[in-house]
Amino acid sequence: MSEALEQRYESIVKRIASACERTKRDPASVTLVAVSKTFSPEAVNALARLGVRDFGENKVQEAKAKIPECDGRIRWHGIGHLQTNKARDAVQLFSVIHSVDSVRVAQEIEKHAAAQSKRMPVLLEVNVAGEGAKFGFKPEEVVEGALTINRLTHLELRGLMTMPPYAEENEKSRQFFHRLAQLKREIEQKLGAPLPDLSMGMSGDFEVAIEEGATLARIGTALFGERKSVAIRQIMSE
Question: Which residue in 47, 112, 212, 229 is deepest, having the highest Cβ count within 10 Å?
């Protein structure tokens, strides 16, 4: 597994560099966030040994079980839907939360960040395509939401995140990534300050996302390989 993992990692690094070259960006401006949901601590540690430092987990419960078994130098990103009753653990476990999808969730994170004397970096999730089954701010509401959340003293507003609709052709995602970048610029104008991050792009479309300005690319399957549902059961039973 380790040799195959190394090959996939090297391939992704090259693809990130190529996407950056096409848009005259520094590859260092893009952070690979390895999406490790359902994968074992052993798989995480194998990738960490190759130099990856940023990993994303979707579920707080799985992260809570997995993180103590992983390399202590890792920066953990919360990238899945966050329920308010999981906010305390999320603040404790993660270095940054990508999926703040409402002012209410932000206020709950604020409360627990204050209790833990922590300033919590967050990104606002935007449902750019308006899909009914997905979470996130509506595009027409996120600017006002960002202004409200920016006033919370224990949160550091870092930028925006989105997941476009699934498409066989990665080019179909471009319009949604482009729109998220536009929204970020609108918020920056209102705030009078830059937002450094756009979290967008996954295994199937991260190159298009980088061309549209992604700074955080959330890559799982293309890096770890196909997920096996048994993996998460093993993690949770340990």
Answer: 47
Output b/e per residue, 77-98; b: 16+ Cβ within 10 A. Answer: bbbbebeeebbbbbbebbebbb
Which residues are within 8 A (CB) of 136 and not within 5 positions of it... i.e. 6 or more apart? 101, 125, 126, 127, 128, 162
Boundaries of domain holding 210:
2-237
Phi and psi angles of residue 83, each rounded to the nearest 5 degrees, phi first: -80, 150
Give the bridge partners for 122, in sequence order: 97, 157
pLDDT bracket for residue 233 (50, 70, 90): very low
d(CA 227, CA 106): 31
Q: Which residues contact 10 (CB under 8 A, 6 or more apart)?
A: none
Please list the residues that pair with 231 across neighbouring strands.
none
pLDDT, mean of residues 203-214? 97
Domain count, the chain: 1
Q: Please give the pLDDT value at position 1.
A: 56
- Give the type of residue at 28: A
Residue 174: give its domain's CATH number. 3.20.20.10
Q: Are 42 and 58 in contact (CB under 8 A)?
A: no
Cβ distance 122 to 160 under 8 Å? no
